[in-house]
Amino acid sequence: MATAPRPRTSTRDPEELARRLTAWLAARLPGAKATGVRVPESNGMSSETLLFDIEHPQPPLQACALRVAADPSAYTIFPVYDLPRQHRTMRLVAEHTDLPVPRVLWLEEDPVPLGAPFFVMERVEGRVPPDVMPYTYEGNWLHAASDAERAHLEEASIRLIAHLHDQVPVTEAEFLALPGEGSPLRRHVDAQRAYYHWVVDGLPRSPLIESAFDRLEEWWPGDEGETVLNWGDARIGNVIYDGFDPAAVLDWEMAALAPREVDLGWMIYLHRFFQDLTVSFGQEGLPGFLRRDRIEERYAQLTGHTPRSMDFHTLYAALRHAIVMLRVAYRQVHFGEAAVPEDPDMLILHHASLAAMVQDSYW
């Protein structure tokens, strides 16, 4: 992690994208042109982002961000990229909550202009806790912050999830119900199992991931809890902060109807993933930040709902992340950046912590 290059994320040509974006924009705003088109260094490995400015005869200059579905030739992380669904989710959250969701300007469902559907939203300035190198490593703004500043950011971030779960009427979010039979939690887990089978189709399977699915069945909650709109990728790396306050909540592609604890488990474990990785490379990390007990306690205070079955839900988060990591690793194999080891579980960066969770020895 400390020395490996960032995995290849796209086969698209940024200059060609800029030319096509300018042509598309001119048809919607006569006299306007896209300038300063660029791909951010932190561009994700699923949907891709372009940053640009709109120059128009009538000022002011407008700063925008564009989200485009993943390039199919880039060995995509997910099998389906539903940009209209993301667009609708962002508008729903903006309408019903006080979460700072960027204002969406246009949705383009025709794949012809850029080669895939996309939407354009207002660009929000600020700073994001980095993934590479992780914010738990020394040398970034969040690690350098004071304990009080990190506590402020933690509190504000937990509040985002609490308000999302409490403020969006589930009846307005039925389009995010996952297909299948059974409860929302059962459908959610079944969707992840189908995703895993897609990832390993024609490739070595992961005994560890399969044992984690088995453990989930053994630990299945007797009371699954209330169904709410889940952000899906609930973590601080998907928030733009103004100082230590949230200024924009991003990345809604994994949104779904599920119990509250699905989001909470993801927030807890995704931080632990970075913290464990940092410790394994000899740094202290941020052991007092985003602790499981504090997240659960503060969420209960904000919502009146005490999180339940959290061993199940943190295991589920680690399992979901393992499937994504396995797909990322197989993408690296596809592009000649890595080779498949004798034990495919070694492709999962957090295989040790996932194994400990399966054995009920992690927490």
From TrEMBL:
Aminoglycoside phosphotransferase domain span = 82-282
User: Which InterPro entries does the entry link to?
Assistant: ACAD10_11_N, AGP_Transferase, Aminoglycoside_PTrfase, Kinase-like_dom_sf
Superkingdom assignment: Bacteria
What Pfam families is this protein classified in? APH
Instruction: Give the matching Gene3D superfamilies.
Output: 3.90.1200.10, Phosphorylase Kinase, domain 1
Which CDD domains does the annotation name? ACAD10_11_N-like
Protein name in the entry: Phosphotransferase family protein
Q: Which organism is it from?
A: Streptomyces rectiviolaceus
Q: Upper taxonomic classification of the species?
A: Bacteria, Bacillati, Actinomycetota, Actinomycetes, Kitasatosporales
